[in-house]
Design goal:
alpha/beta, nine-stranded mixed β-sheet, five-stranded mixed β-sheet, 11 helices, about 25% helix
Length: about 475
């Protein structure tokens, strides 16, 4: 996704044209002169800006936000212990035809265009990171589609930055810089592609490939495959918002998670116009979409047969993606090792086909979009489906707690529910969220689901078993 900008190309070309041939002795002398010159420039506060980039973040509940501006300078910035006040920089954003200020919260030097989440951030480098308040009304990076953010932000230094002794490090000036590029950590590591099935129906997709596989495609390691199914709000033609509108696919591609569970992550997107087939052929259960999705998964696995562990194919989805999970599991009950459906709905009659599959479902009791019991389009919600699974013979372990608990408490409750499931040899778990506790909107039950290491660890423990064998790894102690 990252681009070489026209400015970068021109700068590189100009450097190549004007650089003279020099002897090694001359080069050494030039290096000393340059170092001296750079030292003088830094000491006087003269340090030209080379480029400016926006740094964005996919968040659990507030979707895709612009969280910082990264300014790259010609020379390294050494603050010598000084702290830059946020008031030294002014940032303005032009979004949707409206220009308004962004709130600067922290400024620090760095060696890379990335946010440092430590309480005392930064290190000497050639960049300044200007962090922005994610709660600003104009912090969003997307609506239904990504917003046009190229050169949408301006940043200007309005006060000198000085070292503790008073000498200038960076001088204020009258000119503002505009952003060249937009950097989205993790999401930028997904490649973009498309797949046309045997019937001619096309699905766009994004794909994350494990780092070790990228370095060595001939590896003998076999990796799990996580297939993520977005919600109804991400049906679009941008091949982007299935990554950025909710923190679902990104969860499985973070460096931390990939170190623990390296995996392929396949994130298809349903195109517009919405291909609905009947009153409940909703998104992923539309006959054309479901057939293309199934063929996409089969083709991907076949083309990567040496490196995909076919006993560890996982389905993860939210809202209509949860509906898609229940539909696909029932159609292909012997393919997938486990599933995480959130705020979904489905067919009660098909639950008997999937009693052997490990599922960890969750739903807010007060969900107004996909009601907890009634579901949508005459198809029941999660509570009713879990009852149907139990009637069909699956043991279901249930827990209910607040969806706004701090992460440690939230995971402790999940850990206790998992302990109960293992004690009763249950491989179906169901978390309900107490009314009034799901932030932003009760439908957004997934805000903590994919941040929950207990749930994600559980998912990667599962391996496909024959439909008659219930001895899943969920029972490990």
């Amino acid at each position: 996704m990252r681009r070489i900008t026209r400015r970068t190309v021109l700068a590189a070309t100009a450097g190549a044209v004007t650089a003279p041939a020099v002897s090694s002795a001359t080069a050494e002398a030039a290096d000393r002169t340059t170092a001296t010159s750079e030292g003088r420039q830094a000491a006087s506060g003269l340090n030209p800006v080379l480029r400016t980039d926006l740094v964005t973040r996919v968040t659990p509940r507030n979707n895709w936000l612009v969280t910082a501006v990264a300014i790259q300078y010609a020379q390294r910035i050494d603050l010598r212990g000084a702290v830059i006040p946020p008031s030294a920089f002014e940032v303005r954003a032009t979004v949707g035809g409206q220009t308004a200020a962004r709130t600067v919260t922290r400024v620090y030097s760095s060696t890379a265009a990335e946010v440092d989440d430590r309480s005392h951030p930064g290190r000497p480098g050639d960049r300044l990171i200007v962090e922005l308040d994610p709660n600003d009304p104009n912090a969003r990076a997307a609506g239904t589609d990504p917003l046009p953010l190229d050169r949408a932000y301006s940043v200007r230094q309005v006060a000198d930055v000085r070292a503790p002794g008073g000498e200038p490090v960076l001088k204020a000036g009258p000119f503002a810089s505009r952003n060249d590029d937009v950097i989205t950590p993790v999401a930028d590591d997904f490649t973009a592609g498309s797949f046309t099935d045997s019937a001619g129906f096309e699905l766009d997709f994004r794909l994350y490939q494990p780092a070790d596989f990228v370095r060595n495609p001939r590896t003998r390691t076999r990796y799990p495959l996580v297939v993520t199914l977005h919600g109804g709000g991400e049906v679009a033609d941008n091949n982007m918002t299935q990554l950025t509108s909710n923190r679902i696919a990104v969860t499985f591609a973070t460096p931390e998670r990939q170190r623990r569970n390296p995996a392929f992550v396949l994130s298809p997107q349903i195109p517009l116009p919405r291909p609905m087939d009947g009153p409940d052929g909703t998104d992923w259960t539309d006959a054309k979409v479901q057939a293309a999705l199934s063929e996409l998964i089969d083709t991907f696995v076949r083309e990567h047969s040496r490196v995909v562990d076919t006993d560890r194919l996982y389905l993860v989805g939210l809202s209509s993606g949860g509906r898609g999970i229940y539909g696909l599991l029932a159609k292909r009950p012997d393919v997938f090792a486990a599933a995480l459906p959130t705020a979904g709905w489905g067919d009660r009659a098909t639950m008997e086909k999937i009693t052997h599959i490990p599922i960890w479902a969750d739903h807010s009791v007060d969900d107004p979009v996909v009601p907890y019991r009634e579901g949508r389009f005459g198809k029941p919600g999660t509570w009713t489906l879990m009852n149907a699974l139990e009637t069909a013979g699956a043991r279901v372990s249930r827990g209910e707690w607040a969806n706004d608990l701090p992460k440690a408490q939230f995971e402790a409750r999940s850990r206790e529910l998992l302990r109960q499931a293992r004690a009763t040899r249950s491989h179906v778990l169901f978390t309900s969220y107490t009314p009034g506790t799901t932030p932003v909107n009760p439908h957004l039950a997934w805000g903590q689901t994919y941040e929950n290491d207990v749930v994600i660890d559980w998912l990667f423990e599962q391996s496909r078993q024959p439909s008659g064998d219930r001895a899943h790894t969920a029972f490990r102690r």
